[in-house]
Amino acid sequence: QVQLVESGGGLVQAGGSLRLSCAASGRTFSTYALGWFRQAPGKEREFVVAISWNSYSTYYADSVKGRFTISRDNAKNTVYLQMNSLKPEDTAVYYCAAARTRAQVVRGLRYDYWGQGTQVTISS
């Protein structure tokens, strides 16, 4: 069982930056692939980015490529999402998720655990 808790959300102006964190419980954190998703009001949840258990592989949605960076620190059981050049359309609740896999291909994973989310609001 893995519990995920996101933090770092907030209100920033367009063009600004935020860094989200997701802290995980459990000794097997380092064996999980991790992902970030987001859900804007009135829209379906969408994939943002994923990272393999050993950080060798990442996969980004086109909408955030070049602006967002995912990283993880297995010693701290934490995954990060650095978000730069933020746009109003990035406004959403951001969720982290964990998938029980050591696969290097992190596109299209099925996720087993989800956090509660953190609100990110970008003003124009």
Question: What descriptive keywords fit this protein?
Answer:
124 residues, mainly beta, globular
Low-confidence stretches: none
Radius of gyration: 13 Å
Rounded mean pLDDT is 96
* Helical segment count: 0
User: Could you give the count of β-strands?
Assistant: 11
- Alpha carbon gap, first and last residue: 40 Å
Structural class given helices, strands, pairing? mainly beta
Summarize the amount of helix as a percent range: under 10%
What does this structure look like?
There is one protein chain. The chain has 124 residues and is an all-beta fold. The strands form 2 sheets. Strands 2, 4, 5, 6, 9, 10 and 11 form a 7-stranded mixed beta sheet that branches. Strands 1-3-8-7 form a 4-stranded antiparallel beta sheet, with no helix packed on it. A hairpin with a 6-residue loop joins strand 5 and strand 6. The radius of gyration is 13 Å and the shape is globular. The model has no long low-confidence stretch (mean pLDDT 96).
List the helices and strands and how they pair.
Layout: E1 4-7, E2 10-13, E3 18-24, E4 33-39, E5 46-51, E6 58-60, E7 68-73, E8 78-83, E9 92-99, E10 113-114, E11 118-123
Parallel strand pairs: 2-11
Antiparallel strand pairs: 1-3, 3-8, 4-5, 4-9, 5-6, 7-8, 9-10, 9-11
